[in-house]
């Protein structure tokens, strides 16, 4: 649905005079009754309905009074019947007007084959007589008038032939039904509409004919079943001839199936002969001719192979087109010789003057009929012919042409509202009316007034040109965005059902959202030069008015940074200009480090400062790199070790890093010092835990290590406490939720203590210990291990320093340093420093770079963010006069990635004009587009998220009315992360 | 099964004493229509209620008096459609009007005992839904050890199903139904022709007319004895002599069923046994004006084909709101709460259906549906003496059946419910001898 004001709608406004319609009208259709805007819903259809649409396909015969195509279209419906259809109708005063905007109307589709009432396939699991010739089957016995047929209706199908299936030679007499939404609205239009004869493999091999005796008795035994025809293709014709012969001449019919056939033969019922393969098709025409009934040939997959013969036979043909979505006709049987789908069949027959209808194969979803039409179109039918083949022609073949099939005066007002032309794959059925009543509506509500891209779902933008920023421009294509991400780009963009499709016309140009490389959004006039440890993200919330203003200018991503860098650097955040929350806006919370090289006044001091900062950063980054390397190595070793338990079980004192442990033997023994065997039991523990502890008495103070319950021999915990008399109080150095565990114990005997181990308020364990050695061995406790390399050799992480953290990413090559640097001298010195540091360098401003020889910077400078003033002045080559120059033009001509900057708060809204100006001054438009999009995205390493129109990237899309660098071009649409930004404030 | 024997013996003893009188005295008589009589008296003579009134009501001197002080006296409920006591619910042959539940009812089934414990006094045993044309049903008392003695109405109704049985689909099911009646018509015609010829032969006359005319004239000669078991029941049914219990699971089945039964001129003999979705055809059922027996599953669940949103409909409410009388069935039988008939009625009240409508759905409406509305369904003079003496309100879940009288005779007494005692005490009790009811006394 294209959401824009149509002339028709404007006319409606004028027509209804005082009716108020808000401008701009964003969602069509608007249903307007005199003096009131109402939405047409519910079951009661208005007596007079006036439909307006961008165009109407009437389905009328070509060359007749009613044109096949009317644009713009209008249709008057009274009491469910079409009264008038045309381009210039005036609505009667008392009519309810439904303006469908840019939607396209076509007649409700008629599917000449469905099995919506089930089939008359052979009985299963029942020993019961079951005839191959079974004319008595009637699908109206099985059709669910109470069914909810909306899924089928939303395929556009309003009228269906209810087939009995293809498994029996004569499968029954089909019916024609009209679908409605639910509640008994569905109606049978024709009963016993055709006698079904099925040739081909499907009706071969019927079950044995069993007539069970009831009740069975010795003199009335159960006999084996009789073989019945047809078992071969020859048998098919034979059996049909026999049955018809019996029906005509055999006197009173015996049995229900025979009686039904006799009645059908007597009534000279139309035959519906199914056949797919070329041979069967010829047999079908032969049979029809022999039997002398009116007939249609159905299935006809291989019709193209026998087109001439079929044309000569002059029977109408229903071609069943099974899409890969369901099963193609030929795959309905397991026959390996089954025919394949021939899309050209329809066209071949139509060209020879055969009346052709299209249908979906039995068992498939009738909602595929529209696609079947598209397949035939591909096979060579014209649009008019394809439409007729799924509307008027099948209606005529089914004998209901007087009611349905086309939108001509007197016919039922069954019609389909499509988002675009019928056979475009981007078109979807949005509404279906049956007899003037809204019978089904697409669930996405794409047509309802409140729906917009903000409601989520897929948005598809179509335009004459798509500039993706990668590769060549795409002529006539689009971009599909789902859940904020681009899902498809190109000439053949995917249009999923329910998508909101915005076709901006052939003149429109789609580009990626633009990137402002130096924005001070969110800072306002706050010019604090925040240091590197300040995480800017913390200050960011949902997009405010200033940010939205920038977004309206086409800038979707801003490299937000302080006005002035801190002397040791400041952080740069890649931020979306629209979005409701921080999470929705932040593309990269750390996209670069901004530094400055102010000169030329103190080059030495500046160099020293920058060198120092870089050196600190490098050291820090290296420390971490080393840590990670060692950790990886250690992990590797641990993995090996775990395979050799003997080594792992080594006591701590013998650890490889012997220098980490210190052994000292106390000569004098005291009641505490030494090694104790510990037992902790009771409390919630199922069984006692044992271990050891080492204690050392020093006056009243006790210290040592604890290796039971907490920690183990290899990783003991620190222990400290006091001895007073015989009472010993110890605290284990481990932080638990409930505080440190404490041991309150008493030396109750020599070398023995007993007491409690308390863990917070809740847990209390019985504690006892027995001294086994009176010498104290100091072992490295877990806590101590943090300060040096662990007892187990595990490397320790360097101390975290927030102010240096960003350098880790800088030196890892994951983001650049954006260096603000004006003068040639400054640049010259900076280059040396940065070349040495081996970091990615992007220059900000730096138009003087052009004064330096290219060789000096080409290997160091990754890119340049050109000054916000596109034109600059410089000394001409004569050294005397000054000349105007455009750094962007010259730098980009050297192949250097360029970015544009606003260096302001809301001035980013004019970024596109900066680029346009550069183009006007000679910049390659492609380079200019890249400089607005992909180049900066790459420079700041956010090109995985933004910067081009590629599937998977964020849905930042702009649509211009023309070339984005034409100053006359208007920005028509801005999408940020798939969400449309309102370009004008609402009234 | 000892208890059943005990009950049966008691019943047989009572049968022997037919003509004896009984009276229930002192309880609150509650009828499904909401009328109440405190300290009421119900007098039953010869199996029928001869008086219902207040304490002043005269009690015949020979009556066995059942004291019911503090109790609720309620008509015995009616199970209008059930397969209890049948070992297999369905015949394997799709069209089997020749079968009869008489051959399959198990009098000793514990399910009959449960009926008495659940205040059910009358049971219509009919075959299940998995059929095209099922066999003959039977209305029985839930007590007795021989089907003949239990029988209230023999060979009562025929089961038909519009909803396809297993292996069939709707098209083949309907075709099979049509074919059965068409074949019957063909057969009767051939019998008529034969009978005509036989009559002529008897009189030594020559047959000088066309077969069509012979059929016409012979039609009046056809009697039930001219037909074998295969055709008899169907023939009687086709003439409207046998009620039809027509299963329609879906709304569309109701529509197809009504249409077809009208064709056969049998709509007036039909009772609709419907599934949950049939509530959508409530207006059509209302117009048809025939009894409707609802599925034991009272809630219809349906998910929207586009949005997947599930909606639930309490089916009896739809019928109640449309003013269509309905009959309730248990869901399953006795295994869970909704396997109890009274519980189904209580659920209806909980869902906002008027109490009298809910109570009638297990009594009067159920009796109507089996053609016994004048005989069963309420406590009124002239009706049968099927009386439940309850400890409390019939819809209260704490209520139990204290005594159950069937046609005036004590068929169940909680005090002597041996199986219940075994359940509650965990002991095997010795088989009880047939004894006179303990709580009754001579006036």
In short:
The complex is a heterodimer of chains A (987) and B (443). With 987 residues, chain A is an alpha/beta fold. Chain A contains 22 helices and 46 strands.
Give descriptors for this structure.
heterodimer; A: alpha/beta; 8-stranded mixed sheet; 22 helices; B: 443 residues; alpha/beta; 5-stranded mixed sheet
The helix-and-strand class of chain B reads alpha/beta
Number of strands of chain B: 20
As a percent range, the share of strand residues of chain B is 15-25%
The CA-CA distance between the termini of chain B, in Å, is 33 Å
> Helical content of chain A, roughly?
10-25%
User: Total number of helical segments of chain A?
Assistant: 22
Biggest sheet details of chain A: 8 strands, mixed
What profile does the largest beta sheet of chain B have? 9 strands, mixed
Strand content of chain A: 25-35%
Distance between the termini of chain A: 23 Å
Number of strands of chain A: 46
State the strand order across the main sheet of chain A: 10-11-12-13-14-15-16-17
Radius of gyration of chain A: 42 Å
The helicity of chain B comes to: 25-40%
**Structural class computed from helices and strand pairing of chain A:** alpha/beta
**Integer average pLDDT of chain B:** 89
- What is the overall shape of chain A? flat
Average pLDDT for all residues of chain A = 81
Structure description:
- The complex is a heterodimer of chains A (987) and B (443).
- Chain A starts with 6 loop residues before the first helix and ends in a 6-residue tail after the last strand.
- Helices cover 21% and strands 27% of the residues of chain A.
- Chain A is an alpha/beta fold.
- Chain B is an alpha/beta fold and 443 residues long.
- Chain B has helices at 2-16, 110-117, 147-150, 170-202, 211-218, 229-238, 251-263, 282-288, 315-321, 341-350, 355-360, 364-369, 418-425, and strands at residues 21-30, 36-45, 48-53, 64-67, 72-75, 77-82, 120-125, 133-136, 138-140, 151-153, 158-161, 244-248, 270-274, 292-293, 299-303, 310-314, 387-390, 401-406, 409-413, 440-442.
- In chain B, the strands form four sheets. In chain B, strands 1, 2, 3, 4, 5, 17, 18, 19 and 20 form a nine-stranded mixed beta sheet that branches. Chain B has a five-stranded mixed beta sheet with strand order 8-11-12-13-14.
- The A-B interface holds A 117-121, 123-126, 128, 134, 136-139, 141-148, 150-151, 154, 164, 172, 183-184, 212, 214-215, 254-257, 259, 443 and B 93-94, 96, 98, 166-175, 178-179, 182-183, 186, 229-230, 250-252, 255-256, 277, 280-281, 304-307.
